[in-house]
Amino acid sequence: MTLTEAQQHEKYYDEIFEALSKEPYANYLGIELVELKAGFAKVTLSPKPHMLNTHGTVHGGIIFSLADYAFAAASNSYGKTAVGVTNTIHYMSAGLAGQQLTAIAEEVKKTHRLAWYRTDVWSNDELCATMEAMVYRKNDNFIE
Predict the structure, then answer these.
(1) From CA 50, how far away is CA 27, in angstroms rounded?
(2) Which residues contact 62 (CB under 8 A, 6 or more apart)?
(3) What is the pTM of this model?
(4) If DSSP states are collapsed to H, E and C, what string results for 29-75?
(5) CB-based contact 71:87 (threshold 8 Å)
(6) C-alpha span between 91 and 106 (Å, rounded)
(7) By the 8 A CB rule, do 93 and 133 touch?
């Protein structure tokens, strides 16, 4: 019996969550995967002083990394390997020191080979960035 991707997400949720939560770069930065659904991910980060720019706000590279990790988790949430192809980020306001950042990635459209995502990054209650991104969906699964 062949599982649908939604069924695969449900059946292997624990293994998928564990694999995605062990992403080395995200862990190095202190990013936490807090919610994972099929085609959806929510991640958080409490920026450290070394993550700030000259102006005392969160560096754009940190905001990008947070959005990119949320996008990666959402696009790989089915257990099928998905790799980023392109993304565009728009910075709208500063991420402020001492405020937790939250990124929420949601699937917009998915086909057999490609999928599109929108990721919003929040600094407390203010939208500070939004990313549009696309993945290439490979044939292989990264879980057993």
Answers:
(1) 16
(2) 29, 45, 47, 51, 95, 101
(3) 0.96
(4) HCCEEEEEECCEEEEEECCCHHHECCCCEECHHHHHHHHHHHHHHHH
(5) yes
(6) 18
(7) no
Q: What is the pLDDT of residue 25?
A: 97
The two three-digit tokens of residue 85, written as one number: 């192809």
CA 45, CA 117: separation in Å to the nearest integer?
20
Q: How far apart are CA 4 and CA 80, in angstroms?
A: 11
Work out the number of other CB atoms within 10 angstroms of the CB of residue 90.
10
**Cα–Cα distance, 110 to 34 (Å, whole number):** 23
115 pLDDT exceeds 90? yes
Structure tokens at 25: 């770069």
- Could you tell me the two tokens for 90? 């728009």
Residue 133, classed as helix, strand or coil, is strand
Contact 101, 122 (CB under 8 A): yes
Helix (H) / strand (E) element for 28: namely helix 24-29
Per-residue pLDDT tens over the stretch 54-63:
999 999 999 9
143 to 45, 47, 54, 139: CA distances (angstroms): 26, 31, 42, 12
> How many residues does this entry show for the chain?
144
